[in-house]
Structures are given as structure tokens and as C-alpha cells.
Design goal:
This protein is an alpha/beta fold and 421 residues long. It has helices at 18-25, 34-47, 66-74, 84-92, 109-118, 128-140, 179-187, 208-227, 255-265, 279-282, 315-319, 406-412, 417-420, and strands at 4-7, 10-13, 16-17, 29-33, 55-59, 78-81, 100-102, 122-125, 145-152, 174-175, 192-198, 234-236, 272-275, 286-296, 303-306, 325-327, 334-340, 349-357, 364-367, 389-393, 396-401. Helix 6 links the parallel strand 8 and strand 9. Bound molecules: pyridoxal-5'-phosphate and lysine (LYS).
Length: 421
């Protein structure tokens, strides 16, 4: 695994031993590697090396930590945001507005105004009423908003149903078959400058064929739009490239395979290409470090109860997602175990009958490939504090989000006098 390696039997993140972080910060804690982030950005960029000035806009939802965003900003990435909050985070981390694209089906007038004030590169519109609202907001500010329509190509991405976005029954984008009519409507809206087409069919894609099918449809649409007189200058191909979670499974397509396919399919489009990768940049750059609270006997296999739970890493309970679970200081033996958290839900289960390093109470374990959609999806369910985050670079490390005290959670609520009386 990238920069998460064993040195003398102890897992290190770059040059920092995991137990040192656990000791200082406590567990559970997310740990990120700057070297992996840097390597992934380089690999993705190299994969697009044949393209002319592509805009790589990191999908902030995958990991919005300020230090992670600032690292990616320094490496020249833009941002794909889906809320005013993500927009402000991206700007605060130093991502220039002319590298920011705003996606999402529910942008409010207030969020539109904020994005227009900042002068973002593109709004990806997902419906005709949204286009009308944005035009009005832009006009009221004396501006024209640069837009693309996100088209729904009705392609099955072949991923988990909850993270598929490109089928006609999904809420995302405008129907492909109505696209010409929608674009004609947008051209008549004086507050819009129609500049592009966007598509994103889902996440954790392990096959390039559905992506290629979607991109081919986008290419055909660009041709038809130009025939209809639209000046199409951008094509946003979204994100979605999968990463390896389970080392026993075939590897997903590499960024190089993806880049070669994109280069081939988009030849002659004559647009600025845009990309919104999330997981492929940050997924393997992070691990969730947790301590075993106790091991209890189970009917079939022992339950390893760890101090991380579904509120810290939701993916296994939400999508039955598989994360590799490794002992930080593995003993020689392995055996089957059920790994669960302390939350009062049966779904608070990270793995059942998992063949893994034998661990006992007090041992540290690492949930691998947790840099994407990990901390960002955490909650305070069961009144558990939000998980802290640590960023490592070489031999240095820093807490980049502290664990809030539980008192802050309690004090966040207020009790009206009439309840106390
Ligand atoms: C519009 C949009 N762009 C980009 C992404 C990032 O996807 P991924 O993390 O799979 O690369 C997502 C999430 O699926 C998305 O909804
Ligand atoms: N949260 C999902 C990905 C959703 C992508 C957002 N469009 C995951 O953990 O896999």
C-alpha cells in the first residue's frame, strides 16, 4: 500500500510509526499521507498528459479537510464543489475560483450568488428550473453565469446502486434525449453563458466500458449542439474511477488506462476537458487508525470490538463496502473474526468472517483506503465525538483536525426555560 508500510513489524505512514500517532492523539483517528496524495496527483496528471490544459477539479466531498485541500491546491488542482460550504472550504484552502466547478441538483439562490461573487469557472446545471433560477440570480448581479448542463446518459455504471448516478431513474442531470431542447431553453436565458457539457455516471467504477459509452454519447451531443449553433468550449467528464480496496480482487483500471481511453474517445472534440476525480486522489492516501477495545466470543467467530464505529467510517454499513483491516503490529497468526464498533446498531459492522491478523484488546488496527468518503461522512451518532485527522509528510506529522470535546456536542444544544420549568 502506498506509503503505509511495515518497518520492523510496525506499520508506518511514510516515516512515522502509527503507534506514535495513536499515543499522542488517541483513537480512532484518520491518518493521511502527503506523499501518497502527491503521487496520485502526478499519476492522474501523467495519465492526461496528451490533453491540452485539462482542468482537474478535485471532488471536495471525498475529503474536504483544509490541509488536504491546501496540499492539492499547491499541486495545482481545482475543486468540484456541491455546496456553498464546499466552495468556501476550497477558496479558504487557496484553490483559485477559476478552477472551481459547482455540481449538484439542489443549488440554492444563495449558493448561486456566492459562487457568482467568487467568479467560479463553471456551474454544472442539473435541471431547467435550476437554469432559470441561476439566470435570474446572475442578472440581478449584473453578471452572466458560465454553465454546462450535466446530461444523464442512461448508462449503467456497474457499481453499487447507491453510488450510481447515470441511469435515467437517478436524480442527476437532464435526460439525454431532451438535451437539445434544454440547451435551446438555456440559450434564451440572458443570465447564462452556455459553454459546455458535463457527465458523471457514478463512483468506484471498476470497468471503463460504461464510462466510454457515456463519453461517446457526450461527443455525439457536442456535435449536435454545435450544429444547433451552441458554442461548446468545455466538456466535464466527471470522476468515478475506482480504487483497489480488496487485494484479492482484480485491480480496477489504472489512471493510465483511463487517460488513454479518454484521449482516444475525445480526439477531435476541440474543447477544454475537465475532470472531477475524488476517490482516486485521496482513497489510498488515508487510513482509519483504531484500537481494539475487547474481543468477545461469538457463535461462529470472535467479535473484535474496536473503538471506531459506523459514525467514523460509514461505508461498510451504507454500501457493504470492503476495507482491508490490518494489525498495526501483526502477530504471526491469522484467523477469522467479525470486526464491529461500539454503536448500538447491527449495521455497525466492518467485516464478518474476515480472515485477518489475530488481535487482542489494546492492539491497534488500521482500516485501509479510508482517505475518501471517510471523515467527511462521519457523524456524532451515539454522541461520539467527530474523528480527528492527522496529516503526515515524511517524518513530520500534524493534527489537521482536533477531536472536539464531548462538552462541545452537549453545549451545542440549548434547553428553553419552558422545558426546564
Ligand atoms: C458530480 C460528481 N463529480 C465527482 C465525483 C467524484 O467521484 P469519485 O470520488 O468517484 O471520483 C462525484 C461523486 O461520485 C460526483 O457526484
Ligand atoms: N460516498 C460514496 C461515494 C459517493 C460519491 C458521491 N457522488 C462512497 O463512499 O463510496
Amino acid at each position: 500500500m502506498d506509503h503505509f508500510d511495515y518497518v520492523d513489524g510496525v506499520m508506518h505512514v511514510e516515516q512515522v510509526p502509527m503507534p506514535a500517532i495513536a499515543q499522542a492523539v488517541g483513537t480512532p483517528v484518520y491518518v493521511y499521507s502527503t506523499a501518497t496524495l502527491t503521487r496520485h496527483v502526478g499519476v492522474f496528471r501523467d495519465a492526461l498528459g496528451q490533453l491540452d490544459d485539462p482542468l482537474v477539479a478535485f471532488a471536495v466531498k471525498a475529503n474536504p479537510n483544509a490541509a488536504v485541500l491546501a496540499t492539492l491546491a499547491k499541486l495545482g488542482l481545482g475543486a468540484d464543489v456541491v455546496s456553498g460550504g464546499e466552495l468556501l472550504r476550497a477558496v479558504a484552502a487557496g484553490i483559485p475560483a477559476d478552477r472551481i466547478v459547482f455540481s449538484g441538483v439542489g443549488k440554492t439562490a444563495e449558493e448561486m450568488r456566492l459562487a457568482l461573487e467568487h467568479g467560479i469557472f463553471q456551474f454544472n446545471l442539473e435541471s431547467e428550473p435550476e437554469a432559470e433560477m441561476l439566470s435570474e440570480v446572475a442578472l440581478s448581479m449584473g453578471k452572466r453565469a458560465p454553465v454546462a448542463y450535466r446530461v444523464n446518459p442512461d448508462v449503467d455504471a456497474g457499481t453499487h446502486a447507491k453510488i450510481s448516478t447515470g441511469k435515467s431513474e437517478n436524480k442527476f442531470g437532464i435526460p439525454y434525449d431532451r438535451a437539445l431542447a434544454s440547451y435551446a431553453g438555456a440559450r434564451d436565458l440572458p443570465g447564462l453563458d452556455v459553454q459546455g457539457v458535463a457527465v458523471h455516471i457514478g463512483s468506484q467504477l471498476t470497468d471503463l466500458a460504461p464510462l466510454e459509452a457515456a463519453f461517446v454519447k457526450v461527443g455525439a451531443l457536442i456535435g449536435r449542439l454545435r450544429e444547433a449553433g451552441h458554442d461548446i468550449r468545455t466538456a466535464d467528464l466527471g470522476g468515478g474511477l475506482g480504487v483497489p480496496y480488496d487485494p484479492s480482487k482484480p485491480l480496477p483500471p489504472s489512471p493510465a488506462d483511463y487517460g488513454a481511453m479518454v484521449t482516444r474517445v475525445t480526439a477531435g472534440w476541440n474543447v477544454r476537458l475537465m475532470f472531477e476525480p475524488g476517490r482516486v486522489i485521496v482513497g489510498n492516501a488515508g487510513a482509519l487508525l483504531s484500537r481494539v477495545v475487547r474481543v468477545k466470543q461469538g457463535a461462529q467467530a470472535p467479535f473484535v470490538i474496536v473503538d471506531a464505529a459506523m459514525n467514523d467510517l460509514l461505508r461498510p454499513s451504507l454500501y457493504d463496502a470492503w476495507h482491508d483491516i490490518r494489525a498495526v503490529e501483526p502477530a504471526a497468526e491469522r484467523s477469522a473474526a467479525n470486526v464491529v464498533g461500539p454503536v448500538c446498531e447491527t449495521g455497525d459492522t466492518f467485516a464478518m468472517h474476515r480472515d485477518m491478523d489475530v488481535v487482542e484488546a489494546g492492539d491497534l488496527v488500521a482500516f485501509m483506503t479510508a482517505g475518501a468518503y471517510g471523515a467527511t461522512m462521519a457523524s456524532t451518532y451515539n454522541s461520539r465525538a467527530l474523528t480527528p485527522e492527522v496529516l503526515v509528510s515524511g517524518g513530520k506529522w500534524a493534527v489537521v483536525r482536533a477531536r472536539p470535546p464531548i462538552e462541545a456536542l452537549i453545549e451545542g444544544d440549548s434547553i428553553p426555560d419552558w422545558v426546564r420549568d
